[in-house]
Amino acid sequence: MKKISVVGFGKIGQAIVANMLKNGIQVVAVDINPQLHTVFSEGQYETNEPGLAEALTSSFASGQLIVTNDFSQVHDSAAVIVAIPLLVDQQKNILDEPFLNCFRELAPHFSNNVLIVIETSIPVGYGRDVVVPAIESTGKKHGTDFLLVHSPERIKSGTMLEQLLRTPKVIGGVSPEATEKALEIYQWFFDRSLIHIVDSIEAAEMVKLAGMAYRDVNIALSNQLAAFSNRIGVNFADLIPLINTDGE
Predict the structure, then answer these.
(1) Most CB atoms closer than 10 Å: which of 1, 103, 107, 196?
(2) 240: left (phi over 0), alpha (psi -120 to 50) or beta
(3) Are 173 and 179 within 8 A, CB to CB?
């Protein structure tokens, strides 16, 4: 059975894992929370996300899903997908030591050009300029021991499993070899028509940054228009369907 490890078994990680399990892949879910294994082994896992509980609990019971806090369990995986948060402080400064330490702890188990995938949203240039050097500081080498790509998660709570079936999956690697290997492996659990290859890891990082910025700007503009409409006595909500027909 094909084996993939997912590091970070929170909301996003659980959806990623469930999608793999549905496609017959053995998954090792690694999380620093030591209680997660107990939660599953005692049948206490709960979620409001449709489809997750059934997929995860049944696969855990059958042994297809392993839940652990032991980083060494990623050995012999075809890919290691990292979906842990990259934190910022109140001044918007990146607090990246926990994020980078995760890669340093995983690095001893990297060999034979194992595919490493960052699903977390990261700054443009961060994968090549920060993550690769962090891993290589442990003695591992890109292109020999590991291959790094970015494939940003682009799903939201509520219908995550459904979104994974229709949201384009963007992949960009540090090298063409990394991108090619990611394309091969991601076809194990995504339809090929959903996978979109970009020229570099920086291009993949830009896709997520631009998407988030575009959405935030539109929300902010909509809020300002609604506030202005309220001041002049216009019901902005009633106008939105008409506004959205502009350009049709």
Answers:
(1) 103
(2) alpha
(3) yes
Give, for all 248 residues of the chain, the pLDDT tens digit.
799 999 999 999 999 999 999 999 999 999 999 899 999 999 899 898 898 899 999 999 999 999 999 999 999 999 999 999 999 899 888 899 999 999 999 999 999 999 999 999 999 999 999 999 999 999 999 999 999 999 998 888 888 888 888 889 999 999 999 999 999 999 999 999 999 999 999 999 999 888 777 777 888 888 898 888 989 999 988 888 888 786 55
Q: What are phi and psi of 109, to 5 degrees?
A: -100, 10
Interhelix angle for 201-231 vs 236-243, to 10°?
130
Q: Are 107 and 135 in contact (CB under 8 A)?
A: yes
What is the C-alpha separation between 50 and 56, in angstroms, rounded? 12
Round to whole Å and give the CA distance between 5 and 7: 6
